[in-house]
Amino acid sequence: MPRPFRLKTNFSIYHIMIRCVDGILLFKDNQDREQFLLRIKRYKKRYGFKLYAFCLMDNHAHMVIDAAGADITKIMHGINLSYAKYYNRKYKRRGHVFSDRFRSEIIDKDNYILQASKYIHKNPRKLRNWSNKVFQYPYSSAPIYLGDLDDRFEIVDCDFILKLYSDKNKKKAIKEYLDFMLVPNSAEEQEQIEAEYGFRNQKCEYKSEKTIIAKDIEPDDILTFVGKYIGEDKDKIKIKYIRNLTKAKAITMVLMVRFCDYKVKDICSYFGNITQSRVSSLCSLGVEILFSDGIYKNIINDFLEVCG
């Protein structure tokens, strides 16, 4: 039986749920959870999406993701595939780690995003050692929202939800958000929430004042920008064997993935005489450079100011 078509747009906010296959735990220890969060960080750099909430349990995880112009399928495929490779390597196993595709629900209104985040942040109540301190669970975004835990991986975008309570007074917003999460749902509300978070199909889309990143930028514009950014002839960046321009080539490819919505094969065609495996390696290098190289750490923001 064919899989049903996934309802999505590149400008939606999604409630995402992933689950492991039967017989294993998705996260066996805290190292596994941290490895998953590192992969979220890596793919945020690549695709520019926003993460509004998350909670990593033992056999599943919830997230609220704003695609911000990217393809949610590409985002989740990248995160899940990378984590599955880590997991199988660590535990010396083969086969699937995740149960079927990720499940997604498009968020269509303010109340839904608040209820989704509340539902996600209360998930640790199902864990034996955390049932009475759900908002302190370290592998959830709840303590980050409340200021009780640093966002070590720098992945959570708290302002979007908090500004629904107060645009100017963050302390007030945090207090009101906590008050909201502490209020228990009625039996009727809980039943409705469980039905909604059972991921029904719906043709609706949440639109607000969130920023959308353009995806229709021409690759030549990116190449020209990177050339000017580093003070180098843009045509040299496309040449295959100039080693001192490897970083510039890698950064250019990451920007093409993010702002041109290019696939690996598209980049191969643009650069010519380069394999898909080499492009994939350079894209991974480009993401690492964004984290570690001071020359390029602000290049995405600088690019958006010029070309966004």
Domain count:
2
The CATH superfamily of the largest domain turns out to be Transposase IS200-like
Shape, principal axes of CA atoms: globular
Q: Describe the oligomeric state of these chains in a short phrase.
A: single chain
Give the helix tally: 13
What are the segments in which pLDDT stays under 50 over at least 5 consecutive residues? 1-8, 199-210
The ordered H/E elements are EHEEHEHHHHHHHHHHH
Structural class: alpha+beta
Per the CATH scheme, the topology name of the largest domain is Alpha-Beta Plaits
Q: Tell me what portion of residues adopts beta-strand conformation.
A: 5-15%
Kindly state the number of beta strands.
Answer: 4
Q: What is the residue-averaged pLDDT?
A: 84
Q: Please state the second-level CATH architecture of the largest domain.
A: 2-Layer Sandwich
Task: State the separation between the terminal residues, measured CA to CA.
Answer: 42 Å
Would you write up a description of this structure?
The model is unreliable at 1-8 and 199-210 (pLDDT under 50). The protein has 2 domains: 13-196, Transposase IS200-like (Alpha-Beta Plaits); 219-307, Chromosomal Replication Initiator Protein Dnaa, Chain: A (Orthogonal Bundle). The radius of gyration is 21 Å and the shape is globular. It is α+β, with helices and mostly antiparallel strands and 308 residues long. It has helices at residues 30-47, 72-90, 110-121, 142-145, 159-162, 170-182, 187-196, 219-230, 234-237, 246-259, 264-271, 276-292, 299-307, and strands spanning 13-19, 50-56, 60-66, 103-107. A hairpin with a 3-residue loop joins strand 2 (50-56) and strand 3.
